[in-house]
Write a structure and sequence with these properties.
Number of helices: 3
Largest sheet: 4 strands, mixed
Number of strands: 4
Helix content: 25-40%
Amino acid sequence: MLTSKQRSKLRSLASVIEPITQVGKLGVNESLIEGLDKAIEKRELIKVTVLENSGLIPKEAGLEIANLLGAEFVCATGRKLVLYRRSSSDKVNHIEF
C-alpha cells in the first residue's frame, strides 16, 4: 500500500512519461496483461490510456489491471492510468522513496 507521499512522488514522475499502450474495445484481456506485466517489470512505473470506445471507467479499469498485475494503482487522470510495481530485477534502476 502506497502512502500519500509515495503516491505524490509517483504521480510527479509519471507526468513526464508517455503512455505505453491503450485499453481499447477488447477491454482488459490476457494479451494486454501479458504485455503490461513485461513492461512494468522493466520500468516499474507505467502509464496507460483507456480509450472511450472501451466502455470502461478509467479508475475501475486501473484497479482491475493493478489487481491482475499485482501492482499498485497510483491514479487516473482523465483517461490515463498510472501503475507502479517494484521490479524484482537488479538490472532496473529502482524508484526510491
